[in-house]
Design brief:
The protein is mainly alpha-helical. It has one domain. 47% of the residues lie in helices and 8% in strands. The strands form two sheets. Strands 3-5-4 form a three-stranded antiparallel β-sheet. A two-stranded antiparallel ribbon has the order 1-2. A hairpin with a 4-residue loop joins strand 4 and strand 5. The longest helix has 28 residues.
């Protein structure tokens, strides 16, 4: 049984996940009013597109971090631009690749720190070097987080620190608040990714 307080948040997560996946992968997406809009799959060119100078992005580790970044987080041949606190101000504009990698990592690590080994860190998590792999990684990460939520009972929702994710406020907050926060991250970064796709398409007209 899904706890009654969790059920609407899980429904919201499923809806946001489906809309973002369709927006990136196609062949069609819901326009928001029930009609379908044809959309092509995310391309590598879009994935790496930098709409303004000085973007933070995903880069080959051999090339080093981008402007105002001091490190590339993640594992493997690719990394995501990052810097320790205090972060650069004003915040760098981030590419679609950066935002999608951020979602993938957050969902994967939080799933692990909820119902997995409770050991994964950013240094363990691979960063995708192309659009197709990134979309697939997001889908796997979203599936892992959803699976973790299905194992949660009502008492866990009130437990502070139920999720031990080390890069957020999870150890200080009830798990229900963390579930809400993850939805908020998916909704707002998903909207940003959709907007970047629209801007990329419009730039050619």
């Amino acid at each position: 049984m899904i706890p009654s307080r969790l059920a609407p948040l899980l429904q919201q997560f499923d809806f946001a996940r489906r809309r973002l996946t369709e927006r990136m992968a196609g062949p069609a997406m819901d326009s928001g009013d029930g009609t379908e809009i044809r959309v092509g799959p995310l391309t590598d060119e879009e994935y790496f597109w930098e709409p303004v100078p000085g973007c933070w992005s995903v880069r080959r580790r051999a090339d080093g971090p981008g402007p105002r970044a001091s490190l590339l987080t993640g594992s493997g041949d690719w990394g995501r631009d990052a810097a320790p606190y205090p972060h650069p101000w004003p915040p760098p504009f981030t590419t679609l690749a950066w935002r999608l990698s951020h979602l993938d990592e957050m969902l994967t690590l939080r799933a692990d720190h909820t119902a997995g080994t409770h050991t994964l860190t950013r240094d363990d998590h691979p960063v995708s070097g192309n659009a197709a792999d990134a979309v697939a990684a997001f889908d796997a990460a979203a599936g892992a987080w959803r699976e973790a939520l299905l194992g949660v009972d009502d008492s866990a929702l009130d437990t502070i620190g139920y999720c031990t994710y080390p890069h957020g406020s999870d150890p200080e907050e009830p798990f229900l608040d963390i579930v809400w926060w993850v939805n908020q991250e998916l909704l707002h970064h998903g909207a940003e990714i959709a907007l970047l796709r629209d801007l990329y398409r419009a730039r050619r007209h």
